[in-house]
């Protein structure tokens, strides 16, 4: 659970609670409640305010873009009116596919990394992963087919690994009209799922989760996890020559056109290595990025420091299926909140191993803009040589 951004007061309350409460299970639950409510306080207050105003102002309600819920969604959210009775260990409710699909849309919009992913629809359990290759050849109508189109097709079994998220639903929200419940629920479900999906996309081990882009698809270690890709240590410049091996790999030997690159890195490496390699100071003042090919930075704390990844968009497929919610009954319930566990089957993999290159980002060198341009360098060199020649003639012999 993230605790960044909490106020000093909230942190102190959590510490005091953990230190003074004898029932540690209950203390943990209450601490979770404090943290989540503090983190979502702005969202909670926003939705409560919107609901209050919308109930009196029909024109304002239209501007909120609230969704019209279908029968399945309505029945699902109605269950939250009495979570303790509707969602128990005996009765597991499946989140409607419409909510899942819209939540994944929200996740993609909110996450720069997950915007690179193709999500399979939520109502399928298997999804085809295919990478097209081949050529087309002109000829006479009577000629035999000279071109051959092929596709490497595999099936992604979505019901393989389980992703779990813990959600706290304030009663103040569940008592609102259903479109507002939907807005809050999708917002927190999106946030809860985002980190798990990002981690799976980047470094899923293939055994307990998806196969991450830093892992090899068809090679496993003795423990059953997919083997990590070799870390390339020869990328030192973001120049045409320096990036030639990367681009060649991403094109899959010339079978794919790569018109732009995505560079995924840790925030600390962005500051220390990536930005200095991409931007250089110019004589006229300021900094300039003269990349010969568009490079989009994607910065995320889930990327291990010291490593970075070059990749391309729409080359990774991820799917979720059968998201369920159930009551969390391991600790005592709070008066004003209920904890709900959301679980789903999820899986993912790249089209092939050549869609991502993992490299040692610490090897990147600082980008330096040349002081002289065009033919000036040759002129200065010739002038320097002439001056040195004159000095040789006029210098007395020792």
Write out key terms for the chains shown.
398 residues; alpha+beta; 5-stranded mixed beta sheet; 4-stranded mixed beta sheet; 11 helices; 15 strands; elongated
Short recap of the structure:
The chain is α+β, with helices and mostly antiparallel strands and 398 residues long.
Task: Summarize the structure in words.
This protein has 398 residues and is an alpha+beta fold. Among the domains are: 1-65, no CATH class; 215-313 and 356-363, no CATH class. The chain is 36% helix and 23% strand. It has helices spanning 8-20, 24-54, 58-63, 71-79, 83-86, 97-110, 171-174, 178-203, 244-250, 267-278, 376-394; strands at residues 93-94, 117-119, 126-134, 149-157, 161-170, 215-220, 226-228, 261-265, 280-281, 287-288, 295-299, 307-311, 316-327, 337-350, 356-360. The strands form five sheets. Strands 1, 2, 5, 13 and 14 form a five-stranded mixed beta sheet that branches. A hairpin with a 5-residue loop joins strand 6 (215-220) and strand 7 (226-228). It is elongated, with a radius of gyration of 28 Å. The model is unreliable at 84-92, 124-156 and 328-335 (pLDDT under 50).
Topology of helices and strands:
Layout: H1 8-20, H2 24-54, H3 58-63, H4 71-79, H5 83-86, E1 93-94, H6 97-110, E2 117-119, E3 126-134, E4 149-157, E5 161-170, H7 171-174, H8 178-203, E6 215-220, E7 226-228, H9 244-250, E8 261-265, H10 267-278, E9 280-281, E10 287-288, E11 295-299, E12 307-311, E13 316-327, E14 337-350, E15 356-360, H11 376-394
Parallel strand pairs: 2-13, 8-11
Antiparallel strand pairs: 1-13, 3-4, 5-14, 6-7, 8-12, 9-10, 12-15, 13-14
Helix pairs in contact: 1-2, 2-8, 6-8
């Amino acid at each position: 659970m993230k605790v960044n951004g909490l106020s000093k007061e909230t942190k102190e309350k959590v510490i005091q609670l953990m230190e003074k409460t004898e029932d540690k299970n209950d203390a943990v639950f209450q601490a979770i409640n404090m943290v989540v409510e503090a983190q979502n306080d702005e969202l909670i207050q926003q939705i409560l305010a919107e609901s209050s105003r919308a109930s009196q102002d029909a024109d304002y309600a239209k501007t909120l873009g609230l969704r019209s819920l279908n029968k399945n969604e309505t029945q699902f959210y109605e269950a939250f009116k009495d979570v303790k009775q509707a969602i128990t260990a005996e009765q597991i409710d499946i989140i409607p596919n419409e909510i899942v699909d819209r939540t994944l849309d929200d996740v993609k919009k909110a996450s720069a990394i997950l915007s690179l992913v193709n999500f399979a629809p939520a109502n399928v359990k298997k999804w085809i992963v295919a990478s097209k290759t081949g050529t087309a050849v002109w000829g006479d109508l009577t000629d035999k087919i000279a071109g051959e189109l092929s596709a490497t097709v595999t099936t992604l079994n979505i019901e393989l690994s389980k992703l779990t998220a813990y959600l706290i639903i304030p009663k103040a929200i569940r008592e609102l009209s259903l479109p507002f419940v939907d807005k809050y629920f999708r917002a927190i479900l999106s946030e809860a799922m985002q980190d798990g999906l990002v981690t799976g996309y980047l470094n899923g081990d293939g055994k307990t989760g998806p196969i991450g882009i830093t892992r090899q698809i068809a090679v496993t270690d003795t423990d059953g996890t997919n083997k990590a890709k070799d870390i390339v240590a020869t990328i030192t410049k973001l120049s045409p020559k320096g990036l030639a091996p990367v681009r060649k790999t991403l094109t899959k030997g010339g079978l794919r056109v790569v018109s732009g690159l995505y560079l995924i890195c840790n925030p600390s490496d962005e500051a220390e290595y990536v930005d200095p390699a991409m931007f250089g100071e110019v004589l006229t003042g300021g900094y300039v990025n003269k990349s010969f090919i568009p490079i989009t930075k994607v910065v995320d704390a889930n990327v291990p420091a010291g490593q970075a990844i070059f990749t391309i968009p729409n080359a990774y497929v991820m799917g979720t299926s059968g998201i369920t919610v159930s009551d969390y009954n391991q600790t005592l319930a709070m008066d004003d909140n209920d904890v709900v566990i959301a679980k789903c089957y999820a899986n993912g993999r790249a089209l092939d191993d050549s869609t991502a290159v993992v490299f040692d980002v610490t090897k990147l060198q600082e980008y330096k803009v040349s002081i002289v341009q065009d033919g000036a360098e040759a002129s200065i060199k010739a002038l320097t040589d002439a001056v040195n020649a004159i000095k040789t003639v006029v210098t007395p012999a020792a």
